[in-house]
Sequence to fold (317 residues):
Amino acid sequence: MMPTAHVSAMPQQVCAYLDIRPGETYVDMTVGHSAGHSRLILEASTPDGRLIGIDRDAEALESAKKALACFAGRFELYHSRYSELPQVLAEARVERVAGVLLDAGVSREQMLDPKRSFSFTSTEGLDMRMDRIQSLSAWHVANEYSLKELTRVLRRTGRGREARKVAAGIVTAREGSGGIHTTAQLAEIIAATVARGYGRYRTRRTHPATPWLMAIRAEVNDEEAELQSGLRRAAEALIPRQGRLVCLSWAGHEHGLVRRTLRELSSPCTCPPALPCVCGKKPLIRVLTPKGVWPEAAEVAHNPAVRSCRLWAARAL
Ligand SMILES: C[S@@+](CC[C@H](N)C(=O)[O-])C[C@H]1O[C@@H](n2cnc3c(N)ncnc32)[C@H](O)[C@@H]1O
Fold:
């Protein structure tokens, strides 16, 4: 069977909102293994657009370098986090850019690699680090965090009451065995704790452990702080009155965080509305998509993984 080509999410909308032109510099803060959006940006900015690509996963960059080989001379790749955008731009000797893309979360390749163990089916470890240089992994969270720390992590799901129950289930399971060593094992423990009708999950669209595993992944990769900081750094890097920021979020908690962060960047003043501003905080962007944009039905039919994706766009002030 022919392998299916990787399809990046919402390609036309991403290009349209980024308003890509030749001669300009763009940043893809989340290049990924296939570099699908990076390729689109380079194609749309032909013949001389420049791309600065960032990813915290060194393996992704290795693979992206090959995927983008035909654009040699027009792109540079940086092993970095998106919260470190100012340092990357300083190294690239770029002050402001025409557009920044942030496609949050993990890539299909990371998800499908059993050794990275992002998936609940993985029996090859309990890692979940996007950057394999960092020391904290999902193994540490599941095996070394106290009940209190685990409960804090799992509250990210927004299911406060269940969080303590799941945390207690993890602590009991690890103490009653030689520890938790694979994502599949952790998923089974969580599912057995949360799902009253455990066993029925196979007929549902998502495994009952999914939101809890995502909360652990977010802890390992400091995803919320990274996302907030990345969006701010991106807004600060845009060419005034021209630059565009596009973000793709993939899960409920991410959608809310992106919406709130963009709103803060577009109206950061904290002074009471009836009084003159004394805080001095100036808006950086105007949000172009206050409610976010969902993928079209045709794209979801072709690529069901995109069904939870939401696009956010803003223009620099
Ligand atoms: C959804 S994938 C991007 C897919 C890509 N847009 C494409 O078209 O193929 C997200 C990528 O962002 C990277 N990533 C996630 N958080 C990051 C962060 N804080 N800083 C830099 N890269 C990050 C992941 O390692 C992953 O490769």
Observations:
- Residues 197-201 have pLDDT under 50 and may be disordered.
- Residues 8, 29-30, 32, 34-37, 54-57, 60, 81-82, 103, 105-107, 130, 226 surround S-adenosylmethionine (CB under 6 Å).
